Amino acid sequence: MVEADRPQRGLIDTSVVIDLERISPRELPAELAISSITMAELAAGPHATSDGDERARRQDWLQRAEAVFDPLPFDGEAARSYGRVYASVVKEGREARGPRAVDLFIAATCLAAGLPLYTRNIEDFRGLEELLTIVGV
């Protein structure tokens, strides 16, 4: 992607935040946004492991994200967008509840904000291509 072709702004999901130091800035939009849902996932991360070193690493990621990002809220518009996201995923015959719902909340935030979604796990968002631009990095 040529510098002039880089989108101005995009929403990065949790997988991108975690791998941010390993991703070339040329693969990402000039301005990065994250969802409050990603911040929630990062906040839960340290509590989801019993390994002390891993817990410290996850806490570090959370603190870095808190210092750098002002997350987009999961607000009323995002809640309405979630209905469209949910319907699209179900139409594709895919599961839309349980652990998968977190990814769909991020997609709904992205849809409500009118931003492309950048992810390391493009398969997690299969079925949403008609609603939003999904970019694998």
Brief rundown of the structure:
The protein is of the alpha/beta class. The chain has helices at residues 14-19, 36-44, 52-68, 76-91, 100-113, and strands at 9-12, 31-33, 117-119, 134-136. Strands 2-1-3-4 form a four-stranded parallel sheet.
Could you name the key traits of this structure?
137 residues
Backbone shape: globular
Q: Beta-strand level of the residues, as a percent range?
A: 5-15%
Question: Helical element count?
Answer: 5
Terminal Cα span? 12 Å
Main sheet attributes: strand count, strand direction, barrel closure: 4 strands, parallel
List how many beta strands DSSP finds.
Answer: 4
* Average pLDDT metric: 91
The helix/strand series, from N terminus to C terminus, equals EHEHHHHEE
* Fraction of helical residues: 40-55%
The parts where pLDDT drops under 50 for at least 5 residues are none
Structural category = alpha/beta
User: Roughly how many Å is the radius of gyration?
Assistant: 15 Å
Please give the order of strands in the largest beta sheet. Answer: 2-1-3-4
